[in-house]
Specification:
single chain; globular; Nuclear Transport Factor 2, Chain: A; five-stranded antiparallel β-sheet; 5 helices; about 25% strand; alpha+beta
Length: about 160
């Protein structure tokens, strides 16, 4: 009987810790500004990109709204073949030598935000616009627009 009680108590403690960690992540996202969410995405991208992994859906959902998250998560990937993303979507490039990287203050209107990211890559000035919407779980990226006229949703749907 004591063993069963220990197992029950241990399970409750583990569930409580898991729930607390998830609640803290959710609260952190709600507290982040649109600019902070984009900055956090770039930091996370250096550790483990949400784009090129298939084990952690919550990593994708942390940054992207359901529509874009579904497209990223369901992106076809065949080993040895290039999928719809043939480069890094945060830099819109295959090769990178990033200089003068700046995340600008967002423009916010009616719960929608645009965060401009500028940098120089291999000597070329580049602008990327992150479109975000504010919802119950905080800011989420709804699309990424590139200065060559393409956007992430269009690329993923092609």
């Amino acid at each position: 009987m004591k063993t069963i009680n220990k197992v029950i108590v241990t399970t409750i403690v583990i569930l409580g810790i898991s729930f607390s960690a998830a609640a803290q992540r959710s609260a952190r996202n709600k507290q982040m500004s649109a600019e902070q969410l984009v900055a956090d995405l770039y930091r996370q991208h250096k550790r483990q990109s949400p784009f090129f992994q298939t084990k952690n859906r919550s990593l994708v959902d942390r940054y992207f709204d359901k529509n874009l998250a579904d497209l990223i998560w369901n992106m076809p990937s065949t080993p040895g073949e290039v999928g719809p993303l043939d480069g890094d979507p945060l830099y819109n490039a295959q090769d990178m030598e990033i200089r003068r990287f700046v995340i600008h203050k967002p423009t916010v209107t009616n719960g929608m935000a645009t965060v401009l990211v500028t940098f120089t890559n291999l000597g070329k000035k580049t602008e990327i616009k992150f479109l975000l919407a504010s919802g119950q779980s905080g800011w989420k990226i709804t699309n990424i627009k590139y200065d060559d006229g393409t956007d992430l949703i269009g690329i993923l749907k092609s």
